[in-house]
Amino acid sequence: MSPRAVTVAAVMLVVGAALMTAARSRAQTPPPPSPASASSAEVRRGADLYALHCASCHGAAAQGTADGAPVLGAGAAALDFVLSTGRMPLADPRQPMVRHRSEWSRRDIDAIVAFVVSLAPGGPPIPAVHPEGGDLAHGRQIFAANCAPCHGTAGQGAAVGEGADAPDLHDARPVEIAEAVRIGPDPMPAFDAAIIGQHDLDSLVRYVVFLRTPPDPGGFALGHLGPVAEGFIAWCVGFAGLVVIIRLIGTTT
Amino acid sequence: MIRRLVLWLDDRLGAASFARKALRKAFPDHWAFMLGEVALYAYIALLVTGVFLTFFFTASGQDVVYQGSYAPLRGERMPAAYASVLRLSFDIGAGLVMRQMHHWAALVFVAAIAAHAVRVFFTGAFRRPREINWLIGTGLLLLAMAAGFTGYSLPDDLLSGTGIRIAYSVLLSIPVVGTWAAFLFFGGEFPAPITIGRLLALHIMLLQGLLLAALGLHLAIIWHQKHTQFRAPGRTENTVVGSPLWPNYAMKSAGLGLAVFAVLAALGGLFQINPVWLYGPYDPTTVSSPAQPDWYIGWLEGALRLMPNWELRGFGHTIPEPFFPGVLVPGLLITIYALWPFIEQRVTGNREVHHFLDRARDAPRRSGVGAGALTFMVLLTLAGSNDVMARFFGVPVETVTRLLRGVVLIAPLVAGWVTYVVCRELKAAEGHSGAAWHLVRRGPGGGYVAEDKET
Amino acid sequence: MRPVERPIAAMLVLSICGSLALAAVYAAGGQPQLEGVLLAVSLGALGAAVIAWALRLLPQESVTDVREPEPSPPAVRAAATSALERGEEQLTGRRTLGRLLLGALAALVLVVFFPIRSLGPRPGRSMFHTEWQPGTYVIDGSGRRVRDGQLAVDSVITVFPEGHGGSPVSQALLIRIDPALLRLPPGRETWAPNGHVAFSKICTHAGCPVGLYRAAAHQLLCPCHQSTFDVTLGAAPIFGPTTRALPQLPLRIDADGYLRATGDFSAPVGPGFWELS
């Protein structure tokens, strides 16, 4: 190949890689930076975004309407949580909030949060969380006592009645887990620092992250659904296979 | 060499006369007759793997501090029983596979018994002279379920411990003697430390002793009475046609046994079952979702979930709600099931000896009842997983429960009626060349009269 | 080797390979999936070979056995009945002794009763009381006393009486709720200081811990059989098989701001039983 062709190819590779990295990081909406005071430019940007995407349901001054709860004083954690996890915007206000791929960039989320917080301070701030400093066994205990009843022993999620769902935790990022614990998004109760302290939170988040890929040495985990899935396999794989075998061995007269 | 062994035995036990007939005994080859054999081999697998497990299990509710290789539980206080199961699963060579094979074998064991019982029911194989074996078979089914329940409760993990708590509460709900029954059976108010040791004694000793004895009787009676068979040209009520025991049937059976073990080995290695390390040790102050028992207890769980909140209270006493779905209704169902051969004899008036089997269509009323009962049991079992189904279908669990309350009463009637009609029509379509049998009586005038009897 | 034998030979060789591979895997430290699959191969291939041998290589013959009627000939039946009767006469003939014999056997039933009675303690009054007393401090799972203000509104924690942390029978749920929403049964007006309500965590249906709290709706759900309780109405049942509310623990806040019980639960905890009125 000529030197020119090599140079062009190299440039294309580098540019392509850069674009892909940018696209990936945009799609993953990186976690928010540590809390810092918002600039007035950011607040104005947030105000514009809010007016465009949120005001129709939540009111121009975040006071709420028939379609959307008031978000005045909800706090940075709550706002960041629903935006980062794609729960908002919600197309149909009568539907429950569920996790989606977030449409927002980190900049946009920070801006909207800064704007709403500027309207009224208060509410839980975005929690700091350091899973690597947590203790895995301690986190397991907290999870078993507080979270497993609704979210399942492996964080796979479960129905919690009245059509509500405690979601699967496998896609949740550490900050999102911490935010949910602190704010208690409907129908979840809130657990503030007096119940789950900082070390408890770090440990809990570490365990939840561990649950994304539990060891499962026994083989196919069957969704960690327990005896329901196991019974299904026993009949449809085990017993069914044996019926095939006895039909081969025996006669039909 | 085998010939010399047989002669050696004959010198001491007179074995040759037994062997002469036994080795040529006829065994019918129909595939549906092998369902019981599948259960038998699953049981043998349970015994072999079970003995291995008992060498590693500590049947104690005493707390120890775990220092094994599963990191999320390191440093935690837990019952010694639970710690021993963790050790077997993570730190003993082939331990996890043996444990999983044992548990899969239990699920397949009860499935095979259930399928075998359904076959026996719909073919009328329980009719005279086999009523005793039907009763023994009912006992085997109940013993297998009890063995399974006590077995999976041994690790004292959060999921099975919740099941033990529910069993205690159901026992408590029995009128007059409930509190005594619960305290005596469990060794005190729940949770009593002695319960685990007691479950082990039941599981490996008492229940196995009863199972082996009942199984031995069951097989001995089949051997003595000879197996039933379907009608076919060249067969009569008084003969049984099949492969000779040796070498044909023995080889087929041995091959089936190996196949059963192979399927259980594959399940034991490929599909994770009862991952107790994820549930954590039993803690009476917490619970996990979803919470179900193993499949064969599912019908009881479903009954507990569907039963509305009706309770009897008066004169200073209570008959609590769990009594009805947990004790009364199952008790009635099991009683009717156990006594079915006698119920059918009384209703049809048919007390004759039968060695030929019916096809489902030959006994429309029996088949209708069977279809209805089976539908009822399957729906109750599904109801036991109402929350899992609710999440899967995106429907509120309350809706699933309310819907199933109605369906579980109506669907069996519909299924039973439809089955009855279909069987009756099929039977009528083939006219009297079908499986109707004839009773010949001496009439009043001295001649002979043939009556057709519907079974 | 004849052509018909070759597939069977292949299966037997496969079985041997499976067994050898399994030994190798085990010796190398083991791996559950490989162990299971290789064991399945060694057993399954052998089984398939044996079955194929039985179906393809053995001469397919059919034997016929004659069924003898079960009932024995009349002479034998008569001999058996008279042998039985000979013994019966002894018992029925000597009346007083026969009755005393039956009486002794019946009395033996009493003796059998003792080992059964020893299996457990008498139920007694333990079903009606827990470890909560008037003045008992409320502690959390770590053993710390709970203060007023520690729990945010719509939060829930599991609590125990001080000195009995982790007690299965005394376990309770402490929930903080907006006092304006409470519509407790009459007589409990002072039981919920500052919106703190406490209920037994043991479900009144079948005893599972009522571990799920839908905070915004103020409803507790038991995952076992979906019994649902409304906290604002004093944990009264609103759905599911349960028939009774969760017993409530009366609370007060003392001078130092700690939560304390003022007595035991409003009713016996847990599932119902015969002696419950």
The named CATH superfamily of the domain at 129-261 in chain C: Rieske [2Fe-2S] iron-sulphur domain
Unreliable residue stretches of chain B: none
| Overall pLDDT score of chain B | 94
Q: Rg of chain B from C-alpha positions? A: 25 Å
CATH fold group of the domain at 28-292 in chain B: Cytochrome Bc1 Complex, Chain C
Notes on the protein architecture:
The complex is a heterotrimer of chains A (253), B (455) and C (277). Helix content of chain A is 51%, strand content 2%. With 253 residues, chain A is mainly alpha-helical. In chain A, a hairpin with a 5-residue loop joins strand 1 and strand 2 (165-166). Chain A is extended and about 85 Å long. Chain B has 455 residues and is mostly helical. In chain B, the strands form 4 sheets. Chain B has a two-stranded antiparallel ribbon with strand order 1-4. Chain B has a two-stranded antiparallel sheet with strand order 2-3. In chain B, a hairpin with a 5-residue loop joins strand 7 (437-442) and strand 8. In chain B, helix 3 packs across helix 10, helix 4 (80-91) packs across helix 5 (95-122) and helix 12 (298-306) packs across helix 15. Chain C has a 5-stranded antiparallel beta sheet, with no helix packed on it. In chain C, a hairpin with a 4-residue loop joins strand 6 and strand 7 (219-221). At the B-C interface, helix 5, helix 7, helix 8, strand 4 and helix 10 of B face helix 2 and strand 1 of C. Strand 4 (239-244) of chain B pairs antiparallel with strand 1 (63-66) of chain C, so a sheet runs across the interface.
Defining traits:
heterotrimer; A: 253 residues; Cytochrome Bc1 Complex, Chain D, domain 2; B: 455 residues; Cytochrome Bc1 Complex, Chain C; two-stranded antiparallel ribbon; 8 strands
